[in-house]
Amino acid sequence: MTDLIALDRTAVEESLRVLRAARDTDWDRPSPCAGWTLRDLVAHMTAQHHGFAAAARGSGADRTYWIEFDLGADPFERYDESVRHVLAAFAEEGVLERGFTLPAVGGTFTGRIAVGFHLLDYVVHAWDVATTIGVEADLPRPVVEAALEVARRVPKDPGHRGPGAAFAPALPTAENASPLEEMLALLGRRTGAAHS
């Protein structure tokens, strides 16, 4: 059986690695997430880590854990702290069998499904950060393929896509698309396009 926790850890650690390359001038750059700068994106990522960690420990219904806050003068340090927090929570015994309450998705899910959601988010967000600052994300194929399986199950109807939703409408996928290109297209990301 695939070690979902290890795959998720790899994606999260890659998001941290690429973010480490950010310069002071990068924080106000637009990201592939419409309307978000790099700072906005990392504030979202930081809040999600805290929220998922709380969910892993039975407190996910408390929306205060999911609130995005000002990252202050050292956004990288705030993000790094959130990474340590969520990885520790996911490393606890039996986490995949627990119930995770995820307010943004609207329900309680098994840990296996919830960690799959988190994995997908951090494969995509590692790519988002890398694209924003002009570096390459190094995401191993098994990590991308596991995230792609989750992406294929994201509902495509307009009620779940577009402004205010977690994902943009899906884009057409080329026949020869790599797993990463297919996953990004399914979530409305354009590869190879300049983001302004």
Ends: how far apart? 41 Å
* Spatial arrangement of strands, main beta sheet: 1-2
Helicity level: 40-55%
3D shape = globular
**CATH superfamily descriptor of the domain at 4-140:** dinb family like domain
Uncertain regions spanning at least 5 consecutive residues: none
Percentage of residues in DSSP E strands: under 5%
Oligomer: single chain
Name of the CATH architecture of the domain at 4-140:
Up-down Bundle
Report the total helices: 6
Write down the secondary-structure element order.
HHHEEHHH
- Structural class by helix and strand composition: mainly alpha
Number of strands: 2
| Largest sheet descriptor | 2 strands, antiparallel
CATH class of the domain at 4-140: Mainly Alpha
Would you give the CATH topology of the domain at 4-140? Four Helix Bundle (Hemerythrin (Met), subunit A)
Q: Radius of gyration, Cα only, in angstroms?
A: 16 Å
Calculate the mean pLDDT score and round it: 90
Fold and architecture overview:
The protein is mainly alpha-helical. The chain has a two-stranded antiparallel ribbon with strand order 1-2. The protein is 47% helix and 4% strand. Helix 1 (4-19) runs antiparallel to helix 3 and helix 2 (38-56) runs parallel beside helix 3. The longest helix has 23 residues, at 111-133. The protein has a domain at 4-140: dinb family like domain (Four Helix Bundle (Hemerythrin (Met), subunit A)), CATH 1.20.120.450. The protein is built from 6 helices and 2 strands; from the N terminus they run H-H-H-E-E-H-H-H. A hairpin with a 4-residue loop joins strand 1 and strand 2 (107-110).
